[in-house]
Design brief:
5-stranded antiparallel sheet; about 30% strand; about 110 residues; alpha+beta
Length: about 110
Amino acid sequence: MIKRLWHGWTTHENADRYFDVLTTQVIPGIEAKAIPGYLGIEVLRRELDDEVEFVTIMSFRSLDNIIAFQGADYQKCYVPEAAQSVLKRWDQTAQHYELKESRNNA
């Protein structure tokens, strides 16, 4: 399994608006693509002194599935215009990690 991590930052005033755009437009848009091997997404939020950080963690079965989603330049970020309009700044690339072990006691 491959985890695709990306970071974006926004103002405190735009944080709830960005989360709304992310969960009602961006994520449903990704899900509508029916990307083979796409397993899901997690959204993390962290309040900082002067901004709010968001991290998305997408899960894919393989790197080939990410390339099917993003193309040959698969490290390039995917930030639709609606999200760009409420973000302050964002990573231009995503990082990719192979999941080696996962333990869950929930």
